[in-house]
Amino acid sequence: MLGAGLRILRAGPGAVGSTRRSLCAGAAPSLSYRELKDLKKNDVLHIDVRERWEIDRDGKIPASINIPLGELVEALQMDPVEFKEQYNQKMPSKSDPVVFSCLAGTRSKQALAFAMSLGFNRVQQYAGGFEDWVKHEPPERK
Q1: Pick from 108, 53, 47, 44: which is nearest to 76 by CA?
Q2: Phi and psi at residue 47, to the nearest 5°
Q3: Which residue in the list 102, 103, 111, 115 is annotated as catalytic?
Q4: pLDDT tens, position by position, 76-125
Q5: Could you tell me if residue 127 is left (phi over 0), alpha (psi between -120 and 50 degrees) or otherwise beta?
Q6: Which of 23, 40, 55, 139 could bond to 27 as cystine, CB 3.0-4.6 Å?
Q7: Is 24 part of the annotated catalytic residue set?
């Protein structure tokens, strides 16, 4: 379980922007709306793990891609060409910055744990999720 003993360390040299955080063992970094907004100005892959019908019904956070939680482990282990064909996005390397979000933080926390177990080391979650985002600005609609 990721809940116990959480610590977030500020990254030193080489960090992307002032909100870049690095992970230590057992960390479950969570971003605020403002931190996510700032990170999205840089090269970060934002994966929304809600179901496709939720995206169709409610919209999405701009510049995010949808990989439902049930597909995530398989997606993060795909061949890069297959990933690009399936999700129209470059496959992240294990050292690329990735942010997970969902509706309200439960699924994104699971996604974070999955990614960390696969060796991704620059992963974070937007725990407020879509519910928090729409309090600040409108979603992107198809």
Answers
A1: 47
A2: -110, 120
A3: 102
A4: 999 999 999 999 999 999 999 999 999 999 999 999 999 999 999 999 99
A5: alpha
A6: 23
A7: no
